[in-house]
Amino acid sequence: MPGGKFETISRQGVHTLKISKIEISEGDVYEISVGGLEGSCVVTVLEAEKRPVMNWKPKKIEMENGKPETITIPYSVKGGRNKPKAKLLRDGVPVDLEKMKDLVEVIVHDDVVEIKFKDPKKEDAGKWALELSNSGGTALAPFEIGVKDKPKTPKGPLETKNITSKGCDLKWEAPDVDDSSPVQGYIIEMQEGDGKWTKIGETKQTEFKVKNLKEHGQYKFRVKAVNDVGQSEPLTSDTIIAKDPY
Question: What domains sit in the chain, N to C, each tagged with a CATH number?
Answer without folding.
Answer: 6-43 (no CATH), 53-148 (2.60.40.10), 155-241 (2.60.40.10)
